[in-house]
Design brief:
43% of the residues lie in helices and 15% in strands. The protein contains 4 helices and 4 strands; from the N terminus they run αββββααα.
């Protein structure tokens, strides 16, 4: 009886992990459910898997509505929180919010002082994500 419960628990955990991987690996997919058809969400996890900050990848989630960037969110990463906070507080994630995708893609973004590697990786993720959004 105990082995059956363990097997069921492991199967449930495996199914959950698979669904998380599929969702986080999605790139450039239109939002499902109640989101309008003119909403696009780009996940840079796969687009920029080789883009490394100071201590690993720095994937982003970029939300575009009617061709305008409405949100840029950092996804879980292994950067030092104190340094990555500098990137966030420096406004790098908000720099393109409110801009049309093509306009945002052309912006010259500067790295945040004191978090150069993390900033450069975030900028590269932004560029790749915006280029993907422009293709949609």
């Amino acid at each position: 009886m105990m082995n059956v419960k363990k097997t069921m628990l492991l199967a449930a955990i495996a199914a959950l992990l698979l669904s998380v991987c599929l969702v986080s690996g999605a790139r450039g997919t239109r939002s499902a459910g109640s989101a309008p058809a003119d909403t696009l969400v780009v996940n840079t996890t796969e687009l920029c898997k080789d883009v490394i900050g100071y201590d690993g990848p720095t994937p982003l989630l970029i939300k575009v509505v009617k061709g305008v960037v409405v949100k840029v969110e950092a996804l879980p990463n292994t950067e030092s929180p104190s340094y990555f906070d500098r990137v966030v507080k420096g406004g790098l994630l908000k720099a393109v919010v409110g801009k049309k995708v093509d306009e945002a893609a052309k912006m010259q973004l500067d790295a945040v002082s004191g978090a150069t590697y993390s900033s450069e990786a975030v900028i590269e993720n932004l560029r790749a994500g915006l280029a993907e959004a422009a293709r949609k």
